[in-house]
Amino acid sequence: MSDSPNQPGAMPEPEEIRFVGSQGHELAGVLHRTPERAKGCVLLAHCFTCSKDLFTMTRLAKGLAENGYAALRFDFTGRGESGGDFKTKTVSGNVSDIVRAATALIEMGFGPCALIGHSLGGAASVLAAHKLKTVTSLITIGAPSDVEHIRHLLSDDGSEVRIGERRFDLCPTFLEDLENHDVLEAAAELNRPYLVVHSRDDDVVEFENGEALFAAAKEPKQLFALETGGHLLAKRSAADEAFVPILGWLNASN
C-alpha cells in the first residue's frame, strides 16, 4: 500500500496502548510508529460494527507509518478489545471516544493530528472534528452524510442492528441520540482541509452521501471517487488506489 517510504531504517513493531473512553471503560488501540521522528500523526476511526483490526484500518495505518506518519487505530467502546457493551453504543459516544483518542495522542507527544473515519466512524469523525481544535485535517471513507442513514439497518423497533447475517442488540437511546446530530451542518462548519473518499459502487452507503458531504464543506476540499471498491474496500487494489490520494492529501495539508 505504500509509496517509497520517507523514513529510513527498520519499521518499529506496532505498540498496543490503552486509554479511558467516554463511558469510563478502557479502550484498546494500536500505535504504528515511524523509524524516525514522525512528520505528523493520524487517528483512524473504524466503521459501525467493525474494529481497529479491519483490514481497511490496518492497511492504512501500516502504509501511513511507512510514509512518515504515526498512526493510531483504536476500538470504540464495546468493540474489539475495548471494554464496555456494544448495546450501549450511541453516535455521541463514538464522537466522545474519538475526542478521548485524540487526547491520548497529545498526551503521548503526538499531535495535532489528522483524522480518518470509515463509514459511521467517518460521520462521527466529522462531528468530532467540528469540536476538536487539535484536528488539522479530515478524511472520510464511505461516510454517510446523515446518521439517520443507519436506520435502514435497524429492526422495526430499533432494538437490533443487522449487518448481513450478524445481529447486534442496541438500547433505545441509540435511536434517540441519532436525532441530535447533523453531519452536513458539522461538515459545513469544519474550516479544515477535507478529503472525501467514496466508492461509486458502495451499496451500503451510496455514493450520493459522499457528494453531499463534499458539497457542504468549505475549501480546501476534494472528492475522490473510486470506481470500484464497495463499502469496505475489501480488494487490496481498491485500498491501494484510495491510499494514494489520502497520502497526497496529508502531505499537502501537513
Describe this structure as you would to a colleague:
The protein has 7 helices and 10 strands. It is α/β, with parallel strands linked by helices. The protein has a single domain, classed as 3-Layer(aba) Sandwich (Rossmann fold). The strands form 2 sheets. The protein has an 8-stranded mixed beta sheet with strand order 1-2-4-3-5-6-9-10, sandwiched between helices. The relative contact order is 0.14.
Overall pLDDT: 91
Computed over alpha carbons, the radius of gyration is 17 Å
Based on CA inertia axes, which overall geometry fits?
Answer: globular
Largest sheet: 8 strands, mixed
Total count of domains: 1
Helix/strand/pairing class, anyone?
A: alpha/beta
Instruction: Indicate the CATH architecture.
Output: 3-Layer(aba) Sandwich
Order of helices and strands: EEEHEHEHEEEHHEHEH
What topology emerges from the helices and strands here?
Blueprint: E1 15-20, E2 26-32, E3 40-45, H1 55-66, E4 69-74, H2 91-107, E5 113-118, H3 120-131, E6 135-141, E7 160-163, E8 166-169, H4 172-178, H5 183-188, E9 194-199, H6 207-216, E10 221-226, H7 236-253
Parallel strand pairs: 3-4, 3-5, 5-6, 6-9, 9-10
Antiparallel strand pairs: 1-2, 2-4, 7-8
What are the key terms here?
254 residues, alpha/beta, Rossmann fold, 8-stranded mixed beta sheet, 10 strands, globular, disordered N terminus
Describe the structure in brief:
The chain is of the alpha/beta class. It has helices at residues 55-66, 91-107, 120-131, 172-178, 183-188, 207-216, 236-253, and strands at residues 15-20, 26-32, 40-45, 69-74, 113-118, 135-141, 160-163, 166-169, 194-199, 221-226. The chain has a single domain (15-253), classed as 3-Layer(aba) Sandwich (Rossmann fold), CATH 3.40.50.
